[in-house]
Amino acid sequence: MRQGIIQSSKMFLVANRLEGKKVESSIRYLSDMEAVFMDKVAFSALDPQQPVYEVDCYFPVADNKSGGLFFGLTRIFPGKVGGEFFMTKGHFHSNNDTAEFYWGIKGKGLLLFMDKTRKVWAEEMTEGSVHYIPGNTAHRVINTGVEMLSFGACWPSDAGHDYGSIEKEGFSARVVEKDGKLIIIEE
Ligand code: S6P
Ligand code: ZN
């Protein structure tokens, strides 16, 4: 049952790519993410024009209007800065107590959660996985695989995005590969 639902949304996402909808697309390059990665020496050796992830969003109602839903499709490229995997910037919602769904479409990764006390936990993201992100919880996705990681998202139209606190304080855990093994380094 669960698998059936995900397979049909995958067909919609991958085959039709929001066809006929007004889609707003954006790309985050390494140059947009200098503060995010730990290893500044490894970072400076890479091409700043390397894309890290791209997002297609469908906003059927005005931003901030209550009662609507927004929809996003994110694709994170495979790659690392030093040992640290490519990832999204991550954010809290500005309207703090608003939740979100993520679901894995292709590839593999980790969804990292962090609450307001900086407690972190993670869920594995794979093709068909479903993730509920509660309110007051920052969320970031990390591509731990060797292919593109694609996932869907659906969130309330009045959620808003607070990137500032993550830009300033970061997450209290990092996901890196060391000696061929994936490890989570906690603060
Ligand atoms: C929006 C939703 C996603 C992200 C996207 C990029 O609430 O969580 O569409 O915007 O995955 O991540 P970020 O952290 O750069 O917004
Ligand atoms: Zn969000």
Low-confidence stretches: 1-6
User: Which small-molecule ligands are present, each listed once?
Assistant: D-sorbitol-6-phosphate, zinc ion
Main β-sheet, in a few words?
6 strands, antiparallel
Number of helices: 3
The N- and C-terminal alpha carbons lie at a distance of 39 Å
Arithmetic mean of pLDDT: 91
SS elements, strand count: 13
Number of domain modules: 1
CATH fold name: Jelly Rolls
The helical percent reads: 10-25%
Portion in beta strands: 35-45%
* CATH architecture label: Sandwich
Could you say which overall geometry the principal axes of the C-alpha atoms support? globular
Helix- and strand-based class? mainly beta
Identify the CATH class.
Mainly Beta
Question: Could you give the order of the helices and strands?
Answer: HEHEEEEEEEEEEHEE
Note down, in words, how this protein is organized:
With 187 residues, the protein is mainly β. The protein has one domain: Jelly Rolls (Sandwich). It is 14% helix and 42% strand. The chain has a six-stranded antiparallel β-sheet, with helices on one face. A three-stranded antiparallel β-sheet has the order 8-7-10, with no helix packed on it. The protein has a two-stranded antiparallel ribbon with strand order 4-5. The longest helix has 15 residues, at 2-16. It is globular, with a radius of gyration of 16 Å. Residues 1-6 have low confidence and may be disordered. Bound molecules: D-sorbitol-6-phosphate and zinc ion. Residues 55, 72, 74, 88-91, 100, 153, 155 line the site of D-sorbitol-6-phosphate (S6P). Its EC number is 5.3.1.9. Pfam families: GPI. Keywords: Gluconeogenesis, Glycolysis. Belongs to the archaeal-type GPI family.
